[in-house]
Specification:
The complex is a heterodimer of chains A (381) and B (308). In chain A, a hairpin with a 2-residue loop joins strand 16 (306-316) and strand 17. Chain A has ten helices and 22 strands. Chain A has 381 residues and is of the alpha+beta class. Chain B is an all-alpha fold and 308 residues long. Chain B is built from 13 helices and no strands. In chain B, helix 3 runs parallel beside helix 7 and helix 4 (119-131) crosses helix 7. The mean pLDDT of chain B is 85. Classes of the chains: A alpha+beta (381), B mainly alpha (308). Chains A and B meet through strand 6 and helix 2 of A and helix 8 and helix 9 of B.
Chain lengths: 381, 308
């Protein structure tokens, strides 16, 4: 099966009075690894379940490979899904678990019945299924587990079995609902790599739901960042990081979180923070309160700039994160990223100044939308 | 090897001090276990021993003399037509009640489980017979099945058939009582199955649908039936035990006439009507042995298939 595209048009869904999806349009290209990320409750899981057919949209259409599947049963959509809980059949051993999608599709109902089913199963088909199961197990490095029951497996092994069950029949697309969130941190990092390489090897369409932006950033070709039932931004991980379309995206993407500075745009479009001109120019039409976003790596210690008090520093191997408090408004926290060897000179009271790279700052209006920003020669106040 | 001598001595010293702590802990443990253990002995173990003692005597309730008769009571039971008939009746009763009582309850549970608003109503409706006193209910059934005044026979007659003597035709007696037994046990089993169904993770059904289980039969055999295994085992064992204990319906509906005795009813007759305490004790032991063997066999046989 060649990888298929998945198209969503105007998908809407309400649960009672709550509007959980507000008109989603999304095209997933064939063979793409697309992540749906967002806070819990943003509608990403509901959207995935609609693609799977487990949930019906109130409005809009779902197409797979160009044909409309909106009213089709999940069993007919030829999709494979990996659940957060893995959803392995506890009474079957690994071999039977992986074989289930093939048995359901290739064997007649009479051959699938318990006890007597074996009498009706064509042996040629059974041999083909066995071979496919062996190969799927091989791909995920679990041939030695085939005769075990799920209860005898670790979380990571169950994860692999769930993946093998998904890929055993070359589906049109793989749907994954937070598949790594039940694993410990180390295994999660390892499985991220494996999933990405599995995607490269299979060349299949992956739609991956996660609340963890690191998973999305590291594996995806593109990310659709969702918030409150809408797609805030759709783009490559780099696009989302370098030019977040909204304040929500800027906040969500990046570790540590982006530093946000309350600023004021005056009638000429000059951007100032706490009365201090920042040397940035916005459109005059956008005069009013706004938010300036600065990534931690775009800050550096300086002789003048934002006056801050250093609170503490954390060393993370190669990086060092310094948390500071803005003097002008003590509720504003600023994180500065440095190389581990670097130091930060402070006065006796822990005070210092930070400057930032103005061309890499992001300006967001009061409505959260991104605003154009240019660098201007600073005029002494 | 002198090097190991020293450690050996010190281990011995610590061992003796440890054994003192051990002994104290063991005593404390025994003190905690004692109330439960004594109760168990007083209300289960002792009566069983007394029962076993009676079963090898010719004791009659109120009699002044008692004589050891060995296994005579047991051999007498094997030659006792009434006992053998009661045994056959009970087996027939169980053979009808167990499969219907289990599988009808599963069917009802599946139907009721998928109701949204009416679920509570159906649960109560099916559970009511469990809460009712079977003696009273048997009287109601007696009326319902009465050949001349009962509504069931009225309906049969209305369809143009001969009235059926449910409670006097010897062939129909046990099946009729089995039907009442099913009616009685259905609600309880249904609730057990409902609890089992509620515990099945929704993910599994969804995974099965994506795996291509497009019809309910596939989903039943892929998810529902195997995961209900432990519940089913429990339901089968409890239904078997209650089937072998059938008593009230016989006592009310036929009083053992027309050859409708069951094991427990026969036991009751021997023990409390005829005051053959020794013989009744032997019958009780046989009954207990049957139920025990059956339960153990079912558990061992099914346990291998239902636990994973």
């Amino acid at each position: 099966m060649t990888p298929q595209s998945v198209e969503l048009r105007g998908i809407g869904k309400s649960f009672g009075t709550e509007n959980v999806l507000k008109g989603i349009d999304l095209s997933v290209r064939p063979g793409e690894f697309l992540s749906l990320v967002g806070m819990s409750g943003c509608g990403k899981s509901t959207l995935l379940r609609m693609i799977a057919g487990l949930e019906a949209p109130d409005r809009g259409t779902v197409s797979i490979g160009g044909s409309d599947v909106t009213d089709m049963d999940p069993s007919e959509r030829n999709l494979a899904m990996v659940f957060q809980s893995y959803a392995l059949y506890p009474h079957m051993n690994v071999r039977q678990n992986i074989a289930t999608p093939l048995r359901m599709r290739r064997l007649p109902l009479s051959a699938r019945l318990p006890l007597i089913g074996g009498l009706f199963a064509p042996s040629q088909t059974l041999r083909e299924i066995d071979a496919a199961v062996e190969q799927a197990a091989e791909t995920l490095h679990i041939p030695h587990l085939l005769d075990r029951k799920p209860a005898q497996l670790s979380g990571g092994q169950r994860q692999r079995v769930a993946l093998a069950r998904a890929l055993v029949r070359s589906p049109a697309a793989f749907l994954m609902d937070e598949p790594l969130s039940n694993l410990d941190a180390k295994l999660r990092a390892h499985m991220r790599e494996e999933l990405a390489s599995l995607h490269r090897r299979l060349g299949a369409t992956f739609i991956y739901v996660t609340h963890d932006q690191i998973e999305a950033m590291t594996m995806s070709d593109r990310i659709a960042l969702m918030s409150e039932g809408r797609i805030e931004q759709l783009g490559t991980p780099d696009e989302l990081y370098r030019s977040p379309a909204t304040l929500t995206v800027a906040r969500f993407i990046g570790t540590p979180s982006i530093n946000l500075l309350p600023v004021e745009i005056d009638a000429q479009g000059k951007v100032a923070a706490f009365g201090q001109d920042l040397g940035l120019q916005a459109a005059a039409a956008h005069a009013g309160p706004a938010t300036l976003g600065i990534r931690s790596e775009d800050l550096r210690p300086a002789a003048e700039g934002l006056a801050v008090r250093v609170l503490r520093a954390e060393t993370h191997g190669a990086d060092r994160f310094v948390s500071c408090q803005l003097l002008a408004d003590e509720t504003v926290r600023i994180t500065l990223r440095q190389a581990a060897g670097e130091t930060l000179e402070t006065g006796a009271d822990g005070l210092t100044h930070l400057a930032f790279a103005p061309e890499r700052a992001h300006l967001f209006g009061a409505d959260g939308a991104r605003r154009e920003l240019s660098v201007r020669e600073r005029v002494a106040a | 090897m002198t090097a190991t001598d020293f450690p050996a001595e010190t281990t011995m010293a610590t061992a003796s001090s440890r054994s003192r702590t051990d002994r104290r802990m063991a005593l404390r443990g025994l003190a905690f276990v004692a109330p439960a253990a004594l109760l168990l002995i007083a209300i289960y173990i002792l009566p069983m021993i007394v029962l076993a003692a009676f079963s090898v005597t010719d004791y009659q309730l109120g009699a002044l003399s008692i004589r050891f008769v060995g296994l005579q009571n047991f051999t007498a039971a094997m030659d006792d037509d009434v006992f053998m008939r009661a045994f056959a009746n009970t087996v027939l009763y169980a053979v009808i009640v167990i499969p219907f009582g289990v599988f009808l309850a599963l069917g009802v549970a599946l139907l009721v489980y998928n109701r949204k608003r009416s679920r509570a109503f159906w649960e109560v409706a099916y559970f009511l017979p469990v809460t009712a006193t079977l003696v009273a209910m048997a009287t109601v059934w007696q009326f319902l099945l009465h050949p001349s005044i009962g509504p069931v026979n009225a309906a049969i007659k209305w369809f143009g058939f001969e009235p059926v003597a449910f409670l006097s035709n010897p062939v129909l007696l046990i099946p009729t009582m089995a039907m009442i037994g099913i009616w009685q046990v259905l609600g309880f089993n249904m609730v057990l199955f409902l609890a089992g169904l509620t515990a099945i993770p929704k993910d599994l059904y969804e995974a099965a649908r994506l795996d291509g289980a497009r019809n309910p039969i596939d989903r039943f055999f892929t998810v529902t039936w195997p995961i209900l295994g432990p519940t089913t085992m429990f339901v089968v064992v409890t239904t078997s035990i209650s089937a072998f204990k059938v008593f009230e319906t016989v006592a009310v509906l036929t009083k053992g006439r027309f050859g409708s005795e069951t094991l427990l009813f026969n036991l009751y007759l021997e023990g409390f009507e005829y005051s053959n305490t020794g013989y009744a004790a032997a019958l009780t032991l046989i009954f207990l042995a049957i139920v025990l063997i059956l339960s153990i066999w079912q558990t061992v046989h099914m346990d291998r298939k239902v636990h994973y």
